[in-house]
Amino acid sequence: MADKGADSGRRRERRAEQARLRTIVDRVGDGIVVASLDGMIQFANPAAERLFGRRIRDLCGTALGFPAVVGESAEIQILRPGGSTVAAELRVVETDWGGEPARLVTLRDITDRKRAAERAEQLEQERVARAQAEAANTAKSEFLAIMSHELRTPLNAVIGYADLLDLGIGGTLSGDQRNHVARIASSGRHLLSLVNEVLDLSKIEAGAFSPQVDVAAAEATAKAAIELVQSLAEAKDITIKLQPAREENLAYCGDEDRVRQILLNLLNNAVKFTEPGGKIELTIEKPAKPDVATRLGAGTYLCWRVSDTGVGIPVDRISSIFDPFMQVDSGRTRQTEGSGLGLTISRRLARLMKGDLTVRSKPGSGSTFTLWLPTADAKNASASSDHSTVAASVQGLGDIGEALLTDLGMLVREFVNRVRSENLGATAHSMRFSELADHIGTYIADVAGILIALDESHGRPSALLADGTEIQRLIAERHGAQRARLGWSREDMSREWVILREETERIIKQRIRSSNDDALRESLIVLRRFVEQGDHLSCRALTRAQATEPEEVAQEVS
After folding, report:
1. Is 394 found in the same domain as 520?
2. Are 43 and 97 in contact (CB under 8 A)?
3. Distant-in-sequence, close-in-space partners of 156: CB < 8 Å, separation ≥ 6
4. Domain boundary among 205, 240, 270
5. Which residues of 125-147 are buried (b: 16+ CB within 10 A; e: fewer)?
6. Are the beta carbons of 382 and 215 closer than 8 angstroms?
7. Is residue 329 part of a domain?
8. Looking at the domain assignment, is residue 122 inside a domain?
C-alpha cells in the first residue's frame, strides 16, 4: 500500500510539473511543439499556432513534417494555409512527455531578419552596380571630352582654310569653286556645332561644368536670341514675335550666355518644325507660381515661353524628348538635322542654374517650351542689355563713329602704351604689340559702325545692328579667353577696359566740337555702355576659361 501511495504522489507531482511547464511554454514568444519519436505532434503552444496559421487542435495528431535531429538547428520554410510562407529557425532537444520519450522543437520566426539580410545584400549589390555605372559614365564623359578637343582642332583648321580660300588668299575662285568652298565651310561648322554639343554634355555629366551665375535682364536676353535666329525664320517665311512681360525690367539669376543658348536652341527647334508661313511667339512672364510640371524649389521665378504653330509632339514621345540623342523626327526619312542633344543640354543647364525646362504639346497644334529661372532685382541687372534699345533721340552718334574710325590706329597705340606702362598682368612690358592690342581695334571699329548705323536708322533695330552686337559679344569673349591664357586676373582685365574707355573718350573729346554739351554728354554715356558691355563679357569669359583645363583655353582662342 505504501508503494502505491508513493507512485500516486509522484504522478501528481509530475502532472503538477507539466502543468507549470505548460503555463510557461504558453507564454513563450517562440513556437514550441512536442513531437513523439515517430514525428507526430503531441502538443503546441499559442505561438506555434500563430506561426503555422492553424489551430492547436488541428496541429495535434499531425506529422511535424520536418526532420528533427537532436542538438542541431536548421532554417525551414513553413507553408501556411493560403500559400504564404514564414521563415523559421528550428532547434530540437530531447524531453519526456507523458512518461514517454519525446522531442521538444522550438521554432523562432526569422522572416523579418531574413528579409533585412536580403535587403542589405540587395542594397550592397545596387551600391556596387551604381559605383560601376558611375565609373563607366565618368570614363565615357572623359573620353568624349578628350575626343571632342581632338576633333575641334582639325575642324577649326578646315573652317579657317575654307574661309581663307573664300577670301581669295589662294587666288581668284570661279563660281563653282566658291560654291564648293562654301559647302566645305558650312559642313565644317555644322560638324563643329555637333562636337561642341557632345563636349557640353560630357562636361555636364562629368560634373566639370559650373555656370557663371549673374543677374541679367530677361527681355535683353530674349532679344539677343531672336536676333540670332531671325534670318533663318525669314528664310522660311516664319514670323517671330516677342511678347514682353507686363512688369517692366524683369531680371533673372543665371548664366546669360547659357540662357541665350537655351532660348536659341528652343527657337531653332521651333523654326525647324514649323511649316513656312507659321508663327513663333516668345513670351516673358512672371507667374504667381510655377507650373505643376516643374521641379523647382521655393522662391519666385520668371519664365520664357516659346510657342509655335508647328507639327507638335506625339504623346508617346513627350516623356523622352529630353533624353540624349532622342529626336521626334527619327528614322531614315527624317527631314531635320541635329544630334538630338539640344534639349538634353538645355534642360540640364536650366537645372544647374536652379531652374527647369518643361514642355506642353499637341500633335498638329504646335508646342510650347518653357524655361524657368529664379528672379532677381532688376536694379542689379548686368549691363548686357540690348544695344538696339538706344534711344533714337540721341544725336551725334554718327559723328562719334566717324571720329573713332579716323583715329583708330592712334587710339590702339595709346591704349597699348598705357597697358605697358602699368604692366598689367605682370607681363605687359614684355609682350608684343599684337598680343596687347589683341582684337581691341576690331571691337572699337565695330562700336563705331554700330553708332553710325544707329544714327542712320534713327535708333530703329536692323539686321546690321544685330550682327554688330553679336560681333562685339564674340570679340569680347575671345579677348577674355586670350587674357586668361596669358595669366591675367579679373582686376587686370577690368583695369584694361577702364584704360580703353578713358583713351576713347579722350579721342572723342578732341575730335568732336559740339555746341550742344548735353548731346555730347549723352553720346559719351552711350559709348560707355558699349565699353562696359565688353568689360562684363570678357571678364566672365576669363573666369570661365580659368576654370577649365589649359588645353581647353587654347581651343577657345584658336
Report:
1. yes
2. yes
3. 192, 555, 558
4. 205
5. eeeeeeeeeeeeeeeebeebbee
6. yes
7. yes
8. no
CA distance linking residue 361 with residue 392, whole number of Å: 40
Instruction: Return the bridge partners of 192, or none.
Output: none
Distance of CA 150 to the CA centre of its chain: 24
Are 480 and 540 a contacting pair, CB within 8 Å?
yes
The pLDDT tens digits along the chain (558 residues) read 555 566 666 677 767 766 776 777 777 778 888 888 888 888 888 888 888 888 888 888 888 877 777 777 788 888 888 788 888 888 888 887 777 888 888 888 888 888 888 888 888 888 888 888 877 777 776 776 677 667 777 887 788 788 778 777 777 888 888 888 888 887 887 787 777 777 777 777 666 677 778 888 898 889 888 887 887 888 889 999 998 888 877 889 888 888 988 998 899 889 988 999 999 999 999 888 888 778 887 788 999 999 998 888 888 777 778 776 555 554 433 444 555 677 888 888 888 888 999 999 888 888 999 999 999 865 545 444 444 444 444 456 677 778 778 888 888 888 888 888 888 877 787 888 888 888 888 888 888 887 777 777 665 555 556 666 677 788 888 888 888 888 888 888 888 888 888 888 888 777 666 545 555 666 677 677 778 878 888 887 887 777 664 444 334 434
The 3-state secondary structure of 48-100 reads HHHHHCCCHHHHCCCECCCCCCCCCEEEEEEECCCCCEEEEEEEEEEEEECCE
Neighbours of 26 (CB within 10 A): 11
- What angle do the packed helices 111-166 and 550-557 form, to 10 degrees? 30
3-state DSSP call for residue 254?
Answer: strand
E strands, 275-407, are: 279-285, 301-308, 356-361, 367-376
Domain holding 194, by residue range, is 129-205
Decide if 431 is inside a domain: yes
Q: Do 424 and 491 form a contact (C-beta atoms < 8 A)?
A: no
Look up residue 530 and give its amino acid.
Answer: F
Grid cell 538706344 — which residue?
A: 390
Alpha helical stretches, state H, 457-516: 463-485, 490-511
Q: Mark whether 470 and 411 lie in a shared domain.
A: yes
Find the distance separating the first CA and the last CA of the chain, reported in whole Å: 121
Record the cell numbers describing residue 492, joined without a space: 587686370
- Residue 146 CA, chain-centre distance (Å), reads 20
- Three-state DSSP state, 361: strand
Query: Which residues partner with 76 through β-bridges?
Result: 88
CB 361 within 8 A of CB 316: no
Phi, psi of 170 (to 5 degrees): -90, 10
Cell of 374: 529664379
Residue with cell 573718350: 505
Q: Are residues 328 and 450 in the same domain?
A: no
Residues 449 and 540 in one domain: yes
Show Cβ contacts of residue 202 under 8 Å, excluding neighbours closer than 6 positions. 140, 141, 142, 144, 145, 148
DSSP three-state, residue 243 = strand
Last residue of one domain, picked from the residues 328, 348, 380 = 380
